[in-house]
Design brief:
By secondary structure, the chain is an alpha+beta fold. The chain binds one RNA strand through α7, α10, β18, β19 and α17. Residues 692-810 form the Methionyl/Valyl/Leucyl/Isoleucyl-tRNA synthetase anticodon-binding domain.
Length: 848
RNA sequence: GCCCAAGUGGCGGAAUGGUAGACGCAGGGGAUUCAAAAUCCCCCGCCGCAAGGCGUGCCGGUUCGAGUCCGGCCUUGGGUACCA
């Protein structure tokens, strides 16, 4: 072989690794264990560049840990339940199960050529009955432990298709298929009691030192701990059973600025009033239109309905405030009722202006400010605030102090209590869909909701279902619903809701430690392998998936399936950026966007010449069709080129926009490395000891820098360093023996990124065994020292010249040399410098 | 709307508060070749003949020194609880 041909070498080395079994993870107590995991993929059918990037990063870590003597667990599986399989079934008439398993087979076949160091013996899919049956067992244990319960919650309801829609299926408030205006409808659903753990989930964030600070911050804000006052306004002449309106506020210090009380359209009082008030009923119905997302609710136009009722201010019972029903108040937050303070809140100000309500300042920025303030006033963070109508004393206080003082004052006067609340809501897991894990309960007329018996698990999905009409096929199935009550044996009905797919992905990382156990976990295996030492995935999962997984690890501990030590499941987290791509769209006759694959677009036009609109780069997603297929790259250049390219072009935590241009360059570089290695292997040229030493010095520097890069997710910097070292090696005048040693080291350093090429080089250069398991090279600091260094010399912080000095030269010697330079002498004009700063090994700054 | 990030040459990007632009791509010039491919060498932020000046989204601040730290904006991206 006379040139680099990955097609020939890559398959051979994958076979060699396979036969040596080096990626099989056994429980070897002699070695430190290391569990590296990338977020498992959804089996869409094709791997894309995001997968290649994600799994290559994890593979670099896994291979590096293997070479540093760790017992490595690096598994792979499939997050296989979810809507796309049902959508495919609806679109083309197949079955979600066939579609999913075919996609898994396809993707596995596309993934294997990447040469990932995965222990494939642990592979599973979440739609395997062996997996979801254990998930059902976990659910039953959680039910028994009081971690699951039922309550009403709203869903997006499509009134034409008569079906529940996911948020993604709601476009501008309308159903994506029917185009009908979506309504919010209440259903009884299952919930995980995650909010009971809010405080613990919040506090434990502080222990996650190796998580990105931004993820911890996002989770902290999501949990949203707040301190406030809960109290009631007395209601004048309310309907029977309603004599007060309970409110929660984080700004009790603004209580004297209240000008109205608002309640949610779903508040019990609103629901009572609408029975006798057709206009209110119409208003409430209007409010219930549109999707359920927080974004939609927050951005909707703020509207209110005056109920005509009034409440009494708790500190002045003669002071009456009107009661409005308002569309921006959510029943899920606090008590579903608020008081509005237009003087100190933009939203309340807008509302008060619209409905001509009074604007009453509760405090002023200073004593001489205009008391007839009619614009929202937000107090500065640092200046004290003066109460106009003080209730806690006529004192100057800052915001947080004012709030605490007001709470204390209110408690002393019998107006409510100080309360800690969390924004975090319980996790609704019920889905009115087929392709998910069935919720293992039975509804019995006599016994109510009854958990299935564990010996009846798994409750399997029926195969004979159709998707020709909208709605959940489990509901329509002729017999599947029929089941005996596990308690009394009478004829009863199975629950037809399935679980949110986030449940599937909240414990798969534990299942990998014993994927074939006949209980949810194997305690010994979990104890050995957990926690995940390094978890890697997209930042889009920063909140939901990661928070749910943290909750589940605790729940699994509580139900006895996991040691306490593993209740924070991911020791270290790395959130990689996404692979983005431009979006190409045209419009259909109704003006709706139609998306096109990059491979179908040439020079901004479709094959038939229709120009496409180019939407700026965004996250690759199937729905937007801005997806690039990496298989073409692998076929043309080999897996090592694809791996090298996705690592080299962008810092791992940042988004990378896919471009085809770099792949060719990566291939050229790997070809060059191969050529250099084969030339060195064939050479027996002598060299000078000076050149040998210089090469050795560069080698140790490269070991140091590349190792540091690999260990700190600086893959792009590590690769830049490898480019530089390759250049040094190519130009070196060192002897063949020294060059062979340097080239073997190069192979080792490249092995995590380009494992096939590295094995080939290692073999050519006389390395022993597989480079994948050869001990990782160690940099010797003594071998990295240069004799002299270059120091920049600044004048007043601007670089003017540089000096060459010995590495260890004393500060005052360096100062003398710097001051003697022409540039400094010219600038000084005979005067003395005000100050000279010498940072050893770094810089000299002369201040004039 | 709210929460969290990011912004540096033509492009991807580098830089423990210490020489801004490493490394790579694209581009320009040269060597080799009958010619090409491949390969190798050199140049390459902007303005300027030069001396020099200006430069890390914008405005201000801290510092001997700021891409980096602080305050305020702008733009783009992610999340927003039923996309995964």
């Amino acid at each position: 072989m006379s040139r680099y041909s990955p097609a020939e070498i890559e398959a051979n080395w994958r076979k060699a690794w396979d036969e040596a079994g080096i990626f099989r993870a056994g429980n070897d107590p002699a070695k430190p264990k290391y569990y590296v995991l990338e977020m498992f993929p959804y089996p869409s059918g094709r791997i894309h560049m995001g997968h290649v990037r994600n799994y290559t990063m994890g593979d670099v870590i896994a291979r590096h840990k293997l070479a540093t003597g760790h017992n490595v667990l690096h598994p792979m599986g499939w997050d296989a339940f979810g809507m796309p399989a049902e959508n495919a079934a609806m679109a083309s008439g197949g079955h979600p199960k066939d579609w999913t398993y075919q996609n898994i087979a396809d993707m596995r076949a596309q993934m294997k050529p990447l040469g990932l160091s995965i222990d494939w013996s642990r592979e599973f899919a979440t739609c395997d009955p062996e997996y979801y049956g254990q998930q059902q067992a976990l659910f039953l244990d959680m039910l028994e432990a009081g971690l699951v319960y039922r309550k009403n919650a709203v869903v997006n309801w499509d009134p034409v298709d008569m079906t529940v829609l996911a948020n993604e299926q709601v476009e501008n408030g309308r159903g994506w298929r029917s185009g009908a205006e979506v309504e919010r409808r209440e259903l009884t659903q299952w919930f995980f009691a995650i909010s009971d753990m809010a405080e613990e989930l919040l506090e434990a964030l502080d222990t996650l030192d190796d998580w990105p600070a931004k993820v911890r911050l996002m989770q902290e804000n999501w949990i949203g701990k707040s301190r406030g006052l809960q109290f009631a306004f007395g209601l004048n002449e309310g309907p029977d059973g309603f004599d007060r309106i309970e409110v929660y506020t984080t700004r009790p210090d603004t209580l004297m600025g209240a000008s109205f009380v608002g309640i949610s359209p779903d508040h019990p009082l609103a629901k009572q009033l609408e029975k006798d008030d057709a206009e209110l009923a119409a208003f409430n119905a209007e409010c219930r239109k549109g999707g359920t997302t927080e974004e939609a609710l927050e951005k909707a136009e703020k509207r209110g309905y005056n109920t005509g009722l009034t409440v009494r201010h708790p500190f002045d019972t003669a002071w009456e405030l009107p009661v409005y029903v308002a569309n921006f108040i959510l029943m899920d937050y606090g008590t579903g009722a608020i008081f509005g303070v237009p003087a100190h809140d933009q939203r309340d100000f807008d509302f008060a202006t619209k409905y001509a309500l009074p604007i009453i300042p509760a405090f002023l920025p200073s004593e001489d400010a205009d008391p007839q303030l009619n614009a929202p006033y937000v107090p500065p963070k640092t200046e004290p605030v003066h109460y106009v109508s003080t209730i806690a004393g006529d004192t100057w206080q800052t915001g947080a102090e004012a709030i605490e003082a007001t709470i204390a004052f209110c408690e002393q006067n019998g107006v409510g209590q100080g309360v800690t609340k969390y924004r975090l809501r319980d996790w609704g897991l019920s889905r009115q869909r087929y392709w998910g894990c069935p919720i293992p309960v039975v509804h019995c007329d006599a016994c109510g909701v009854v958990p299935e018996k564990k010996e009846n698990l798994p409750i399997r999905l029926p195969d004979d279902v159709t998707f020709d009409v909208p709605g959940n096929p489990l509901d329509r199935h002729p017999t599947w619903r029929n089941a005996p009550c596990p308690k009394c044996g009478a004829d009863a009905r199975r629950e037809t809701d399935t679980m949110d797919t986030f449940v599937d992905s909240s414990w798969y990382f534990i299942r990998f430690t014993a994927p074939h156990a006949d209980t949810p976990t194997d305690i010994a295996a979990a104890e050995y392998w957990m926690n995940v030492d390094q978890y890697i995935g997209g930042v889009e999962h920063a909140i939901l998936h990661l928070l749910y997984s943290r909750f589940f690890a605790r729940a699994i501990h509580i139900t006895g399936h996991l040691p306490k030590s593993a209740s924070e499941p991911f020791n270290a987290l790395f959130t990689q950026g996404m692979v983005t791509h431009e979006i190409y769209q045209t419009r259909d006759e109704n003006g709706r966007p139609v998306y096109h694959l990059p491979e179908d677009v040439q020079d901004g036009k479709l094959a038939d010449g229709t120009p496409v609109q180019i939407v700026p780069s965004a996250k690759m997603s199937k729905s937007k069709k801005n997806v690039v297929d990496p298989i073409g790259i692998i076929d043309a250049y080999g897996a090592d080129t694809a791996r090298w390219f996705v690592l080299s072009d962008s810092p791992p935590e940042r988004d990378v926009e896919w471009t085809a241009a770099g792949a060719e360059a990566a291939f050229k570089h790997l070809s060059r490395v191969w050529r250099i290695a084969s030339e060195i292997a064939a050479s027996d040229a002598p060299g000078t000891s000076e050149a040998d030493e210089a090469l050795l010095r560069e080698m140790h520097k490269a070991i140091h820098d590349v190792t540091g890069g690999v260990e700190s997710f600086g893959f792009n910097a590590a690769i830049a360093r490898l480019y530089a070292f390759t250049g040094v090696l190519a130009k070196s005048e060192a002897g063949a023996q020294a060059k062979r040693a340097a080239a073997r080291t190069l192979a080792q350093l490249m092995a995590p990124m380009t494992p096939h090429l590295a094995e080939e080089m290692w073999q050519m250069l006389g390395g022993e065994g597989l480079v994948a398991v050869a001990p990782w090279p160690v940099a010797d600091p003594a071998m990295m020292q240069d004799d002299t260094i270059t120091l920049p010399v600044q004048i007043n912080g601007k670089r003017r010249t540089e000096i060459q000095v010995p590495q260890e030269m004393a500060k005052d010697e360096v100062e003398k040399i710097a001051l003697a330079t022409d540039a400094v002498q010219r600038a000084l004009e005979g005067a003395q410098p005000k100050k000279v700063i010498v940072v050893p090994g770094r810089i000299v700054n002369v201040v004039i």
